[in-house]
Protein 1
Amino acid sequence: MIKFEETSLEFKRLPYGETFFKNATGRCSNGLLMIDFIALSAGLPLLKPYKEAGANFTPGVNFAVAGSTALPVQTLAAMNIASSVTTSSLDVQLDWMHSHFNSTCQIQKGWIK
């Protein structure tokens, strides 16, 4: 079962994903995104989202979140800009990436192995 990033978006429900993926995907698309076409044409696998429970991240991992912003929601709120789509701004996604790297990479003598 896919664990979606907590959001109020409709993207985590059908019909999003039903045509190509045959289930709800949490994507802002019913099918493939441009990055998927690029990956497929290069012979690369589609990357699983970081929040997908039990996903195989051996070929890579996708930290992107639909509707996310570059600035944190606190910064936007201070400028009276509402961001009701998600609270996972770029800094949250980078924190996920940092945590993932720390849990999967070994640091030895200053080099990542």
Protein 2
Amino acid sequence: MEWTGARYADKPTLEVRTWIDAPPERVWSLVSDIELMPDMSEELQSVEWLDGAAGPAVGARFVGRSRHDALGEWQTTSHVIECEPGRSLAWAVQEPDRPSAVWRFRLRAEDGGTELSEWMQLGPGRSGLSLAIDRMPEKEQKIVFVRLREFERNITATLGAIKQRAEH
């Protein structure tokens, strides 16, 4: 059977959602504090704002340092491309016009609490995943699939940690 998954150039996406028994303002205070994120992630090791920024605003930049058993250690600079307090926060990784990934949190008041989603898109810019694909182009679709499943597990864990903190 032939593998028929997405290719990197397809800019594959995924989204995970959860409902949190807390108002959007409380959830936003956690989502928008990016320096908390390493505590909620196996891969992300540290985050710090650049250029004197103290919080999210369109155009603000931050550096993130990550580690993965198969990919090693790396750092990226991200650019906030969307910031609507209490509603959404998005950033482009590396080049804003051709990011290696785009990440977005969305919050929506629902049933007395908050529906929180985390969405991400791979590519179109090059990333560490591109290097793995360069080495094994015949396995590109499997590489993309496996990485998306890793992101899905990590996002699910992050949303669970945000839910735990917001509700307690």
Protein 3
Amino acid sequence: MKKFAFLFIMVTSVAIVNAQDITDALRYSSDELSGSARVRSMSGAFGALGGDISSITINPAGSAVMLTSEAGLTIGNYNTQNENTFFGNNTSDTKDQFDLSQAGVVLVYNNTDQNAKWGRMSLGFNYENSNNYSNRNFIKGLNTNNGIDKYFLAYAQGVSLENIDLLPNETVDDLYQWLGENYGFAEQQAFLGYQAYIIDPVSSDNLNSDYNSNAYYTGLDQEYTLETKGANRKFTVNFATEYDKKLYLGINLNFHSIDLKKETYLSEIGFDADSPLQETGFKNYLETYGNGFSLQAGAIYKATKNLRLGAVYQSPTWYRINEELSQGVFGISIDENGNEYSPDVVYPNVTNIYEAYKLTTPGKFTGSLSYVFGKAGLLSFDYIRKDYSNTKFRPVNDAYFSTQNNQISNSLQATNSYRLGGEARIERLSLRAGYRFEESPYKNESTVGDLTGYSFGFGYNFGATTLDLSYDIAEQDSNYQLYSVGLTDSAAVNSKFQTIMLSLNFKI
């Protein structure tokens, strides 16, 4: 593709409302397993434990369990493997990324008054990669149902020909930009399909608003690639305190940051010999960035010397999100004698900069218990309740957002998640393992299935310094829909998510 300098334009809300859907809502509402290698090796079952810097993002009271000030960081590798089935054809793809997963510090202040009910206090700061978007997927198959022509037709019907036909001396960039500024996303898609000769008007009348496809086929060889980069990152400010050496209380202020780059490309061949259209390619590049805020309040209670109970409430996260989109399409066509025309390449030198929108993701409740076997080890269990149907695009009185919110409410559900972790200590060496299960957020689990994961790891305590290593793997089935309209066929995807993390913590 030829490189261009971008022309930046503001697109009205008419355009942006076609960009957000239930998939986006779920993406920014979901949390991966995160934290230090010790936390991850026990599958995140730390709600009643504390004592680890990154555990404060699970239960804010956890920092008050720590006896001394500590600092630490975690680095590691994220690996995603996808196995796809599309119209009976199997493909696979994988992507690795090395990144800083977590870094933080907890400062502990001990009350020297032995008779005081309020004991030590702690102040913590933590950064973590709470959701890694590094992913790549390759889908291929012989589609006997739909082609990309159906996508462009869905948007073109009802659009006046005079709006998408180039005037003398008018460029592709000029008209694509004008459509975005004055009409919106649908008209831009109609324009792309028409200019690439994928669709044609029924009549040449300027007021024509009915279109036909130039694609004839009984089956199309389609190749679809998806690549995403970026992360949802969270910075936490924590305060916690101990009361009567049994009760630990804490609060978090969480500052969230979204950075997502998503690129898709579809190519099609295999059209009938008499089809005016013989080959297509369609590219979209979306950048999403935004910020959010949430609160957490938590408690840990020592019911007995060995038994601990934990409870945490996390508020909804309130996001403000921006998106930028660039796209292009090409078509190769032939005349009635089978002679090939020059390719119709329509790559507007324009980036659509949409108005910011707001998203409120659901809060969640975590209940935990753990049993500590003295210096020999421990077992810990977390239960998490989260209602994804409470996710909301805002403003809620916007007609399009209202439709999407109704779809979210009807399609998503409250979920239960379970995490179990254990640790065995042999002098300075700790051996760890964990299991987690997360219910599908969809009422129809064929869209996205349940997630099951396992984790393992070990750590060594050098005294003032600890070194921890973890490995975790999770698996989930889903159906990935290529486009929201027209070409709506789905690929069955089996995804495996693996991470290897290394943490270094030291007392300060």
Protein 4
Amino acid sequence: MQKFNNGDRMGALKLFEESLQKSPTTSQRHAALFNSTAVHASFGDVELAQITLREGVNRGLDFEGALKSTDDPQLVRFQGSPQIVIQLRKFAEAVRRIKGAVASPADKPAAAPSGRIGASASGDGGNYLGRDMSGMLRTEMSGIDPSLGGIFRRVAGLLLTGLVLGAVLFYVGLKLAFPSYS
């Protein structure tokens, strides 16, 4: 395992990102993504660490195994606060569970009456990870004209309604504010 000091971290991060642009093997890709996650975590940037971790887990990276690995020369030593390590472990587990729940359509089991896809090992019924959310997130556009003319008519109607309503409320407000001038 390599250890990078503060001056080397940005250079190392650049090398890891460049290695991903080439045609790396699966092992090299996992190492580059884990190492990028480790560098981002060492800076305390959890969001960037999660981006690279998500890609790694989605591509088969065993984050927990990489954290514990001490004999792989491709992996850097993970230096992050205990809070960041815990947060990234939970994140990796959530990504792994979502990846398992969002299998290919041929592999996806039928939705249970509760809307869940398959059964979670932990049995957490209130957890949205692993649930089919497509019904809740669907937007129906039936009856709405998406053409330019339809959009123009809706905007013109909204503006006209706003102007008329604004004028009426303005005069009602004048009557209420100054009743003696009527």
